[in-house]
Amino acid sequence: MHNHEEDWRSYPIESDDEMGFAMTDLGWTEAPHSHPWCVRLAIELNEPGPQGLGSTEEMESLSAGEDEFLEAAAQAQAIHVARVRHGGEVAWFFYAQSEDIVESLGQVAAELLQRDISAGAQHDPEWGVYASILPSPAVERWMADMQLIDTLEKHGDPLTVEREVIHYAYFDDLESAEAFAADSEPEGFEVEIREPDEEIEQFGVVLTQQSAVDMDTIGAITQTLSERAAELDGEYDGWECALVKGPGGSNN
Known about the structure:
Layout: E1 8-15, E2 18-25, E3 37-44, H1 56-75, E4 79-86, E5 89-96, H2 101-113, E6 118-123, H3 128-133, H4 137-154, E7 163-171, H5 174-184, E8 190-194, E9 203-211, H6 215-231, E10 235-241, E11 244-245, E12 250-251
Antiparallel strand pairs: 1-2, 2-4, 3-5, 3-6, 4-5, 7-9, 7-10, 8-9, 11-12
Helix pairs in contact: 1-2, 4-6
């Protein structure tokens, strides 16, 4: 139907000092003009708990009905883009060809989920609601860190063993690249500045340091480097390292 590859990711969100979680299809890079209506269907959780996220048992009890409900939405040509748990409710977001789908889709959801449904729609041809649900730069960085850490763990890496970790950042001008390098060098990084070439048109800064890669350690480093790069109108582009195996750590 559209030139789109699904990329469902789960990540934390924070609003009004309350924690929440979103499960979002990040694969949409352009808003389909054929689906300009944002449809929101929501239920209140029976047992929201102190954080308003509901219990595992309640979410599992909804799962079978949710699968059928989402299948019905797909058959009605509605595009499911996100599910958000926050503030004692679960909300599903869709984009549809017409607002006329709201009533029928709400009825199907109520029947399959066995819950009262709050349903509404708004004209949103630019998919602004979808954009508002997408992860912030800080959350994107956290997701990237976690993805790499998960890969290392699956291969037996203890994470807490120090090893050579290489970080990358890019800038439009040499002055910014040099400033980023100068600010980072006192923190124990070996620094290399790379000139633009045919593949990468920006100035690159490569930082190398011995460090562990558990989330507490690497997360603090990537947060500092990301914020520093952003202050210089640059972009931090992640890190890489060799796999270390075993309790004492042996490179592989």
